[in-house]
Amino acid sequence: MRKLASFAAPCSGAILLAVLLLPERWLLPLGIGCLCLGLGLLLREGKGRMLLVRLSCFGLAAGFLWTALYQGRTLAPARQMSGSAHTFTAVVTDWPAATRYGASVEIALPTENGTVLGAVLYGDESLLTLRPGDTVRGSAALELAHTVGGEESDTFYARGIFLTGSLRGALEVDSPERVPFRYWPAFWARHLKEQIARSFPADVAGLVSGLVTGDKSGLDDATYTAFQRTGTAHVVAVSGLHVSFLAGVALRLLGRGRRRTAVLTILLMAVFAGIAGYTPSVLRAAFLQTMLLIAPLVEREGDGPTSLSLALLLLLLQNPYAGAGIGLQLSFASVAGIQLCAQRLYECWTWWLPRRVRGLRRWGKQVFRVLAASLATTLGALLFTTPLLVIYFGELSLVAPLANLMGLGAVAVCFAGGLGVAVLGTFAPALAGFLGEVFALPGRYVLWVVRGMSRFPLAAVPLDSVYLRGWLILLYTMLILWAILRRGPGRYIRPVIPLCTGVLSLCAALMCGAAELRLAGLTLSVLDVGQGQSVALFSQGRAALVDCGGSGWDNSGDVAADYFQSRGVTRLDALILTHFHADHTNGVEQLLERMEVELLIAPDVEEESPERQALLSEAEAHGTQVLLLDENAQLTLGQADIQIYRPMGDGGGNEEGLSLLASTDTFDALLTGDMNTVLEERLVKYGALPDVDVLIAGHHGSKYASSERLLEAVRPEYAVLSVGYNSYGHPAPETLARLEAAGCAIYRTDWMGTITFRARE
């Protein structure tokens, strides 16, 4: 078996290197070089290790050459089609989805060389009437799917989608009399979702649908954020966990007939993989479970590394770019961590248990073993997935082990019950509705655990602190040294040393970060919220936020709440909104859900505005006081004074917005919201502005803001542009030229992320 791993692992590694790091032009030479090296080693005598080396060379060669061939058959025709309008005939492969401006649908698009490319077609709401298996004809402007939100990304490629198209004109649709077999799972998945929605109460239907089908659309933003903060988001993204639950239930129900049970369980997992959309994590889990079921039937022992490397290779052969998907990387990393570490951790915690006990002690022993196994599995997975989570998301959940330990048992019950109720609902709706109420109880428990633990101030911490980064490096260094140096009969208790060191150093890192924040006279952070604005202020234990809106992948309210809660702040003294536009306010609802806000300050304008009325209603619902300003006001925040300037104009949200000056004895920062040049001149005339250290450039760098008059008046040392991907041309070249001419050091959130300034006392 390890001979197979010696080929599969290097082949998979070569494909991952080719996709993630290496230029395309290197692949063919590297593949030929590895092939020649392998052929040369055939001339040398030797077995054993030499055989494994030869297999590794051939595996590397196969990986590089296969990726080069795949790119030639997919990317080459995709590039030829990109950048122009094409008339096409394609097949719909999945259910359409509503978008902000209409709808989108995935299609299989034939090319001239016979390759069928995955593509996403964007159009109006008429696309929502399409079904998987429909044949569509039309015209669309096609582009390579290598960007997401204006940034280079392999997200689409990882899903096998290489083109995006904007529909031109109407579509011709032909619906088949009988849906092709390959699209049946999509219909089954929709049917299960409908049955879950009918059978379960509304408060848990979204969770059950996520558990059974992987569809998270039924979860509101606040709930899904809670899953992310507690490190339990994997339970609502169908993965190996669910396949394990399914296989366990099937094995218990189907009895002891090994061959029959194995075949039926494998078929059941294949159907479930289709319902879940054939995601890489589900396919990986189904393959590994299949290997475990087949091994005894052919009188072979299961081998974890071989099965894992072979599963990865099969997925990458189907689509090398699947290796760029975060889901696949996390899925295989978690299984690798479980295989390498879970059993060792379990033995370290249970070696001292007596072998023979009776009565209550026996039950206690069994409960302890179950808890130890669950915790060992969770920690094993976290050890390997944490570096990836930090790299991709820059955040670490500190409560993940406890949240998983408390919730996974109920998740298993809810998953099995949800799947059974969804199937039963087809034949006995009344009974399914009754059982839905029963199995809603473990679902409510899961939501209670997740929502409750997500509210802990330090449930998740962003790794933007040098102290926390240092702690993470120290922790992994200690664990690696322990794994290398552990020897002798006392090995079972030695994990206590790196674990205790890790806990103590984490406490020290958090205390250092909090002390640094509190020692500063004023800390100002321009948060990275995409195209929008959200500025955090902190001084001597008091906190405020100016604006809370943006277009980033994460809700701007979550971004702000994460920032404050990771620093031990659970309450805001004030939320100041410069005006009511969405790019400054669309995260307020989520912020109020997660944090207590004592006072909401906003301009007293646009009384009939739906945005204003919605914000004031949210504030009232959460017990937040409201102060509407039409005159200047002043707010004290610790050692900082915040001067809030009244609206300087009229005629719209930008013209009727607030601006403010945050000051200490040694530091001044000016925020002008979305003011234009005319209003900036009025602010200079009536605001008595000092020279400032930091200017938050107006209107995200618009050419109509940050005028020469304002720059001459305040002479900022630093200018910060809160900006993200947009179609407005922000920041404008003219604005950048003015700021550079004024001698400002320019910082941008779209390039640098969250930007922080600290004014010492």
Short description:
By secondary structure, this protein is α/β, with parallel strands linked by helices.
Describe this entry's structure for a reader.
This protein has 761 residues and is α/β, with parallel strands linked by helices. Helix content is 52%, strand content 18%. The chain has 25 helices and 26 strands. Strands 18-17-15-13-12-11-26 form a 7-stranded mixed sheet. Strands 19-20-21-22-23-24-25 form a 7-stranded mixed sheet. Strands 1-3-4-8-5 form a 5-stranded mixed beta barrel. A hairpin with a 6-residue loop joins strand 11 and strand 12. Helix 1 packs across helix 11. It starts with a helix and ends with a strand. About 1% of the residues have low confidence. It is a multi-pass membrane protein. Its main location: membrane. Keywords: Cell membrane, Membrane, Transmembrane, Transmembrane helix. It is found in: Cell membrane. InterPro entries: ComA-like_MBL (IPR035681), ComEC_N (IPR004477), Competence_ComEC/Rec2 (IPR004797), Competence_DNA_uptake (IPR052159), Metallo-B-lactamas (IPR001279), RibonucZ/Hydroxyglut_hydro (IPR036866).
